[in-house]
Design brief:
The protein is α+β, with helices and mostly antiparallel strands. Helix content is 17%, strand content 39%. Strands 1, 2, 3, 4, 5, 6, 7 and 8 form an 8-stranded mixed β-sheet that branches. A hairpin with a 2-residue loop joins strand 6 and strand 7. The two termini are 23 Å apart.
Length: 127
């Protein structure tokens, strides 16, 4: 079973997400999309068409990274979320019970040994 196949996104907290997003747009040339983040597109993803790595800021008081107190969270792409979560549980990892499934794909979370919340993302299947 493949485990991580790429980075699906980089997310971090900011005191003022709008102002910091604007700074990245103006000074580093990030193309901020209507949903508030950036989609770095790449064409090597033959399994799902065109791949993407997201970049997005969250308010400093977000609970989305909880229970981690870290200011960032990395989202890793995976091929089979449920199989990987089962393997991680069997290996004694701290895996959250919650799994989100939507039109954006499947999302699950594991906490690393230093308390960082890691998001695992299985992109949606092509129809």
């Amino acid at each position: 079973m493949k485990r991580v196949t790429g980075i699906g996104g980089v997310f971090f907290k900011a005191k003022d997400p709008k102002a910091l997003t604007d700074w990245y747009r103006v000074h580093l040339g990030l193309k901020v999309e209507a949903w508030g983040g950036v989609a770095f597109r790449w064409a090597d993803d033959h399994a799902h068409g065109e791949g993407v790595t997201a970049w997005n800021l969250f308010k400093q008081d977000t609970s989305h990274f909880a229970p981690s107190t870290s200011s960032f969270m990395i989202n890793y792409r995976v091929d089979d979320l449920h199989a990987l979560l089962a393997a991680l549980r069997a290996e004694g990892c701290n895996v959250e019970d919650k799994v989100d499934e939507s039109e954006y794909g499947k999302f699950g979370w594991v906490i690393d040994p230093e308390g960082n919340k890691v998001e695992l993302w299985q992109p949606p299947s092509e129809s």
